[in-house]
Amino acid sequence: MPVIELASDGSLPLPEEIRKSLSLRPGDLLNVEIVDGSVRLSRHELPKPKPAAKPKSVSESDPVDVLQTPMRFIKGVGPKLADTLAKKGIATVEDALYVLPHRYEDRRELRPVARLRPGMTEAFFATIVSAQPMVTKGGRNYFEAIVADDSGSIPLKWFHYHPQFMKRNYLPGRRGIFIGDVSQFAFQREVHHPEVEWVAEGEDLAQVMARDPENFGRILPVYPLTEGVSQKVMRKIMRETVQQYSRSVKGVLPEPIVQRQKLMSLPVALREAHAPDASARIDHLNEGKGEAHRSLAFDELFFLELGLALKRRGITLEDGISFQVTHRYTRELAKLLPFSLTNAQRRVLSEIKEDMIAPHPMHRLVQGDVGCGKTLVALMAALIAVENDYQVAIMAPTELLAEQHYLNIHRYCEQLGIKVTLLTSGVKAKSGVLELIAQGETQIVVGTHAMIQDKVEFHRLGLGVIDEQHRFGVVQRALLKKKGSNPDILVMTATPIPRTLSMTVFGDLALSVIDELPPGRTPIETRIVRDSRRAQTYQMIRGEVVKGRQAYIIYPLVEESEKSDLKAAVQMADHLKQDIFPDLKVALLHGRMSASEKEGVMSAFKGGETNILVATTVIEVGIDVPNATIMVIEHAERFGLSQLHQLRGRVGRGSERSFCILMTGDRRSEDGEKRLEVMVSSQDGFRIAEADLSIRGPGDFLGTRQAGIPELKVADILRDGGVLEEARKEAFALVGADPDLEAPGHDKLKAELMHRWGGRLELASIA
Ligand code: ADP
Ligand code: MG
User: Fold this and answer.
1) Ligand 1 atom 20: the closest Cα is on which residue?
2) Residue ranges of domains in the chain, CATH in brackets
3) Which ranges carry the Helicase ATP-binding domain (predicted)?
């Protein structure tokens, strides 16, 4: 029997083992009974929420319904707060349960002032030494209180304050527990706008901490805040919600998976995530490595992957075209090429062939770094379709790129006797192009999204190729597919898609990776140059041009419509022409030019008639001029890393040494610096993409928010990549074994799946 000694303050510290065995957590109440002369402790269960406090439609017996209880039925949530919460997507207790703390604070003990750590939120007990209004050197008013304990002192500062209030409360000699973010300027640590819990005269520190068990003596959850709701209020209502409703959350994962993955039950995981045990490791919690977090993330990712697995399966169940590989044109093309395919190209091509031969539609994503030769692989696939008397649609994101693809493909196909047609919005209806396509007189159509308009009809579309998928949404993919009867779809992207994204956003596509560049490419030397050293950059450009090479100078143009950016590019081109390189040929290319103007500029540059091409980002994807050996990117800090990488891929296409100069302002943020350094140190598109993703987050990374998959509330695909991988494995295995989710117990899985995916799950096999 454990013997417990009363603490010096008379309180009763419960040993860890007892707390554990009663599953006590901070703030719980204890029942103390005396039975037959011995003391019996048990956890005091709070009364269940009164039925009256719930809307009529809710019944205890239906767990899903209980979780739909509106937040206004939570103690402490009035109509106004309920409104505020609902606006932020926290309408029901289920919503609330899944708003997890984004970090945790360690309030298990107070820190001596001398040991307060800059960059951390700390709580400390100290006495006010002095307090008065002050003025900064810059003339800004603030209030300063110096506080101290035995170990040292630290200034507290308020830049927004109520003078009367501060004067009344911050009196020398007064003691308090202060909580705030510790910052450091030069060698001085300070705390701005701390919270305070006053300690009354004669009151003991332990008494104060016991008075507020919500905020002391435990690991504190820190919630993402909603305007108008303080951390304190948030903690209180979350605590209420978790205590009353977490037990109503029913996990539906099959037992073998729970066992294999060593998952906590959802109610326990939720409680643990919102109110971690005092013995938890705070660093693990903050890095999302806690068991509770892993269990919740797994659950969420499992349903995401289950949906994707079913989608994939739905696709593979559809009837599609079973192509025959006759080699008639593909062999011919191989003979025409001045080089042979890389091993990676061969491998990916054989994966594509297998799909095309199969009697189900292909849905394959080919990803590969800039310049790895995706176009050629696509063309080979196109030839297989043509060999089978089918048409092919190749869709590119910009007119410029469509035109370039067209020229490239046309060049080869002409020699093979295959007709290729360009279809962009610039092509007039009366030109007869639409008839050519509808009557099947043209075999390969290269174009922009103009191709998916209603009026475009294909005679017999067998293969759709989408280049640079990240620019197109799921919708465009579906529309292109509708242009034929279950044609094969091949999606290509030069943005190396981090594995985590290929398992989620693109998770219903089969994946091929071209992970090898054609031989003979030399690495590109990348440098960061500040504006003040611009002359040096011009010197380098001149040096390359003298050697007979060509240069790109790129301007950021976030939106084609942004006039000011366009103006900057136009002015710069003029300035370069007149003042810097009057003896050289400088041309300008931007998105507002007509297709024929653009084509003129591009072909002059390709032909070597122009030395320097000043361009906006229309140049980004796919442009191929091997003689260009230097690229200068203005305002490099305004680009995403993946975009910079794509741009950079326009040089280094020949065997000459190439350069990429990233121009930046003279003043840069530390973050910006770190970002651009990645470009200098790496040529590996995958590494750059990973870095880009971790800096910008998935939404920005893809350019637009990709619709079509459920939003993740708990999991963070970057941090939880390992969990994602496990969840995907389990979900795909489950669908492999039970494609219709008919096995005993899987009906619950099916219902939960529908609940999580909402209307987004258009499943052929499980409608
Ligand atoms: P991306 O993958 O960026 O679309 P491209 O298809 O534009 O790359 O190819 C880049 C360049 O490499 C083109 O000039 C193309 O002709 C050339 N190329 C493609 N495959 C090979 C190969 N196996 N060997 C040599 N050059 C190749
Ligand atoms: Mg390409």
Assistant:
1) 373
2) 1-46 (2.10.260.10), 63-97 (no CATH), 109-217 (2.40.50.140), 255-317+722-766 (no CATH), 330-514 (3.40.50.300), 524-682 (3.40.50.300)
3) 355-514
